[in-house]
Design brief:
Residues 12-21 have a biased composition (Basic and acidic residues). By secondary structure, the chain is an alpha+beta fold. It has 1 helix and 13 strands. The protein has one helix at residues 27-49, and strands spanning 9-11, 22-24, 54-55, 58-62, 66-70, 81-84, 93-97, 102-109, 114-119, 132-133, 137-138, 144-149, 153-157. It is globular, with a radius of gyration of 24 Å. Mean pLDDT is 77; it is low at 30-48.
Length: 158
């Protein structure tokens, strides 16, 4: 098996931009630079992977404590509410929901600006979140889930 060649060139501080303005780093320093780059890129990737939506955590209350309805989306705008993998615009879009969609409000983040929701595409399903669940856990059940801007969800029960 051959050796892996690590990049060992770096620009000297304050020097020009030409190819002759580089000096060689030692192998240990090259490894440290490579590890730093990998750590930064893995942290960025994990931010886009998503934040788990947590449900439950109380023996006396439903796993998701409130029910809301998407409202106020303008027909002249996008016309949909983006459902994301985590609480923020930097997270991947996983679905689009529309005015009138009923959602279970299970979690919140960023001082209540983002809601963790669970929702069904059929009216009959309660998504298994309308009964108490003593231990908090990540939601992985029959319905869809994600994070939305709270300003577009109006409380209807809870």
């Amino acid at each position: 098996m051959g050796r892996i060649q690590l990049p060992q060139l770096t620009r000297r501080h304050g020097e020009g931009r030409g190819p002759d303005h580089f000096h060689v780093l030692g192998p240990r320093r090259s490894i440290a630079v490579l590890l730093a780059v990998l750590c930064v890129s893995s942290n960025v990737a994990s931010a886009y992977a998503g934040a788990p939506l947590r449900v439950g955590g109380g023996a006396e209350i439903d796993a998701c404590g409130a029910v809301g309805r998407v409202a106020g989306l303008r027909a002249g705008g996008d016309g949909f509410l983006a459902v994301r993998k985590g609480p923020g615009k930097n997270f991947d879009l996983v679905d689009k929901i529309f005015n009138g969609q009923v959602v279970f409000m299970c979690d919140s983040a960023k001082n209540g600006a983002w809601l963790g929701i669970v929702y069904s595409t059929s009216e009959e399903s309660d998504c298994d979140v309308t009964s108490p669940l003593a231990d908090a856990r990540a939601y992985m059940d029959v319905c869809k889930s994600g994070w939305v801007r709270a300003s577009w969800v109006k409380l209807i029960a809870g």
